[in-house]
What does this fold into?
Amino acid sequence: MKVVLSIKPEFAFKIFDGSKKFEFRKSIFKNVNIKSVIVYASSPIQQVIGEFEIDEVLNYDLSTLWDLTQEYSGISEEFYYDYFANKEQGFAIKIKKTRKYRKPKCLKEDFNLSPPQSFAYWTAK
It folds into this structure.
């Protein structure tokens, strides 16, 4: 089983160029057996552009999480704190290995899914 994450295109592409090694989330999937993420680049791209393996999921107070991830966050500190506004803790998915698709895929046709607000579980048929 994998999880599909909707990620803004500017951040999704940074994952595959190696400048973003952490994907931040306000909440995280409950299934601890998830080892791989399918990346859906949201509007205006609206395509699945690749996958990555999960190294680990970090969960800390915001200050500690930023200290641990800032070098490869792919975002500014201001954006980070704006994103986590009104939260005391945050999650960072540490990206281990990426695989960008040669040809982007359609979420509906190739995965039979609609774009998730946060995430969606996906199992290959």
